[in-house]
Specification:
The structure holds two protein chains of two kinds. Chain A has eleven helices and no strands. Chain A is mainly alpha-helical. The longest helix of chain A has 33 residues. In chain B, helix 5 packs across helix 7 and helix 9 packs antiparallel against helix 12. In chain B, a hairpin with a 2-residue loop joins strand 1 and strand 2. Chain B has one domain: MetI-like fold (Orthogonal Bundle). Chain B contains twelve helices and two strands. By secondary structure, chain B is mainly alpha-helical. The chains are: A mainly alpha, B mainly alpha. Chains A and B meet through helix 1, helix 3, helix 4, helix 5 and helix 6 of A and helix 1, helix 3, helix 4, helix 5 and helix 6 of B.
């Protein structure tokens, strides 16, 4: 029975990893056809770094992920502090507002933002992409910070005020250090979600501005290319490292306040 | 602390960027442009009921349903094994389950293109051992496979987290009272794992029914699911009114079923994946 279980698990993990590993192995294949092995090469990696489309979209992806995660973290943390002190009715309204983009299908979020941007005559491009990413990132920061605020001892803040601290000073010296794990997890989550997003970016970008996901999509639609394989290998390593960091963080924080997966 | 006001910018932001856009979609879905002026109409919704589009809707639901069932049948045993008492290194195995999910969604789907392609890896292997080539890419099979591959962990994780929390003494009690392992599973374990099953089903079915990437890359550019229909209306046909109507229908269906599903998962027992 135990052996049977192991075999079943092995089959499942082979199913999950075989495609990705095949991609990575074939990124070193000298022959362009995927059917046979033409010797080891690094030329696809070389071509990848010379591809201006790929490089500019990589640049966009990182800039947008960083900016949107930063804005979302600041705004989301402030929002969480405010929500935490809200009365019940208002709070449930705001929480519904927060969950709406999380449960709404991405494609609907994407087209609705696109309609908004076109409606207010904002040219689709970098700005709209950034606005869209901030929008879908903030709720995740709010949802990461709120549990930390709930654990907070509210008397500490009052004590700081009694001892003569200004509210802002008390916030930065007393509250922020306490909720910091949630804030950092929120930032990492927002950053990763933004890196990974395709659907919303697809609808909210224009005029030649593309992210890595969009470039992959347009390349993949034309058929398979070893350059994408090289890109996959690199992205797999990056994601693995990011995930290990996040996982280590939530392990040291005792519990997973941040979801490890996204839809 | 009374600091409610610090969340006002956020509330304003969310109203502008989530509520207003949805209202605009609603507005587009109920209007059409006639001789340069916008008029109210129900035509967009009536068009969704035309046989061509109903067929697309039906196919999306059927494919998503099949994928969900396959994910459940394949995923439940995985969750059980992982949650089982004789499993060491649990957290590493669960992490291993999560890692491929963090890889870019498009690349995961693209990986299957390389495998299933006419000249791809699977056909090369078949050719090498002297078997006839099979036509795999751009079929229903490929689309379902892509969905199962992408969404399987969404089924396993919630079930796993519920199974792990089941009180072992309940199982022991059932065994002491003379139940064999099948009865224990049928009467104790499975009913207790239902919240996880429900959220697993939700988390697989929802993205499967709305996808347009898997169907486009693995089903070919002619392959139509609701997602592709919406994408077409906005990016190619430029019939935003009709596209908005389909989006509204899809959104209402999804939010309704989410609402119904969460009723069954009140305590967030399904792993709290959000």
């Amino acid at each position: 029975m135990k052996a049977l279980k192991r075999i079943y698990l092995i089959i499942i993990f082979v199913f999950l990893y075989a495609p990705v590993l095949t991609l990575i192995v074939f990124s070193f294949n000298d022959s362009k056809s995927r059917g046979h092995w033409g010797g080891f090469t690094l030329k696809w990696y070389g071509q990848l770094f010379k591809d201006r489309q790929v490089m500019s979209s990589l640049y966009n992806t990182i800039i947008i992920a960083l900016l949107s995660a930063l804005v979302a973290t600041v705004a989301g943390t402030a929002a969480a502090v405010g929500i935490h002190s809200m009365k019940k009715v208002l709070k449930s309204f705001v929480m519904n507002l927060t969950y709406l983009p999380v449960v709404n299908p991405d494609i609907v979020t994407g087209i609705s933002l696109m309609i908004l941007f076109v409606f207010i005559k904002l040219d689709l491009g970098f700005t709209t992409l950034l606005l869209a990413h901030i929008t879908f990132n903030i709720p995740y920061v709010v949802l990461s910070v709120l549990p930390k605020l709930k654990q907070l001892n509210k008397h500490m803040y009052e004590a700081a005020l009694d001892l003569g601290a200004k509210p802002l000073y008390a916030f930065f010296r007393v509250i922020l250090p306490e909720i910091m794990p949630g804030v950092v997890t929120g930032f990492l989550l927002a950053f990763t979600l933004s890196l990974d997003d395709f659907i919303i970016s697809f609808f909210t970008t224009g005029s030649g501005v593309s992210t890595l996901s969009i470039t992959i999509y347009s390349m993949a639609r034309l058929g398979v290319s070893p350059k994408i394989n090289a890109l996959s290998a690199l992205m797999f390593i990056v994601v693995l490292v990011l995930l290990l960091i996040v996982n280590k963080r939530s392990a040291t924080n005792g519990r997973n306040e941040a979801p490890l997966i996204n839809i | 602390m009374k600091k409610t006001w610090v969340s006002y910018p956020y509330i304003l932001w969310m109203i502008i960027f989530t509520i207003v856009p949805l209202l605009l979609v609603l507005y587009y879905s109920f209007t059409k442009t006639e001789d340069g002026s916008v008029v109210f109409t129900l035509e967009n919704f009536r068009r969704v009921l035309e046989p061509t589009y109903l067929k697309v809707l039906w196919r999306s639901v059927v494919l998503a349903f099949i994928s969900t069932v396959v994910c459940f049948i394949v995923g439940y045993p995985v969750a059980m094994i992982l949650a089982g008492k004789d499993m060491s290194d649990k957290s590493i195995l669960v992490l291993l389950l999560v890692v491929p999910m963090w890889m870019n969604f498009l690349l995961r789907t693209y990986a299957w293109m390389t495998l299933l392609d006419r000249k791809g890896v699977i056909n090369s292997i078949l050719g090498a051992i002297g078997l006839p080539q099979v036509h795999l890419l751009y079929t229903d099979f490929a689309v379902i496979l892509g969905m199962v591959y992408n969404f399987l962990p969404f089924m396993v994780l919630p079930i796993y987290s519920v199974l792990r929390k089941i009180d072992r003494s309940l199982i022991e009690a059932a065994e002491d009272l003379g139940s064999d392992s099948i009865t224990v599973f049928r009467k104790v374990i499975f009913p207790l794992s239902l919240p996880g099953v429900v959220s697993g089903i939700t988390m697989v079915f929802m993205p499967a029914v709305t996808t347009f990437i898997i169907s486009k890359l693995l089903g070919g550019s002619q392959y139509m699911l609701i997602g592709n229909l919406i994408e077409d209306q906005f990016m190619r046909v430029y019939d935003w009114n009709f596209g908005s109507a389909i989006s509204i229908i899809m959104m209402v269906l999804i939010l309704l079923s989410m609402g119904i599903m969460t009723k069954y998962d009140k305590e967030g027992a399904g792993g709290g994946l959000f």
